[in-house]
Specification:
This protein starts with 6 loop residues before the first strand and ends in a 17-residue tail after the last strand. It has 100 residues and is mainly beta.
C-alpha cells in the first residue's frame, strides 16, 4: 500500500467566486497561500497580471460563500476566493497552535 498523497486547498483560476478544492500538492501558484492579518490570501495576486486580460487581478482571499456559517459547517463547496476586504466577516479566519 502506497503512502497517502499530500493535498492542499487549490484555486483553479485567480478570480472572484472560484471554489477551493483539495488537490494533490504540486507547489504551483494556485496553492500558495499566506496569512495576512486575519485573512488567508493567495500569494502574489495583487500584482498578478492575468494572461487573458490587461487588468491586474485583485488581492484574493479565502471567503465563505454568502456567509454560510450555520451548523453543520461543511466548508467544502462553501469556500471560494474573493477580493480581500478588511473587516469582511466572510474572510476572517483564525489559527490556533496546539501543543501536545
Amino acid at each position: 500500500m502506497s503512502p497517502p498523497v499530500p493535498t492542499q486547498l487549490t484555486v483553479a483560476d485567480p478570480a472572484n467566486g472560484i471554489e477551493l478544492k483539495l488537490w494533490d500538492c504540486y507547489d504551483v501558484p494556485q496553492q500558495q497561500w499566506q496569512i495576512h492579518d486575519d485573512k488567508i490570501q493567495l500569494v502574489g495576486t495583487s500584482k498578478y497580471l492575468h494572461a487573458l486580460s490587461a487588468f491586474l487581478t485583485p488581492d484574493l482571499c479565502w471567503d465563505v460563500r454568502d456567509g454560510q456559517l450555520e451548523p453543520p459547517m461543511n466548508l467544502f463547496g462553501v469556500l471560494q476566493t474573493w477580493q480581500c476586504y478588511d473587516g469582511n466577516p466572510n474572510q476572517m479566519f483564525y489559527t490556533e497552535t496546539i501543543t501536545f
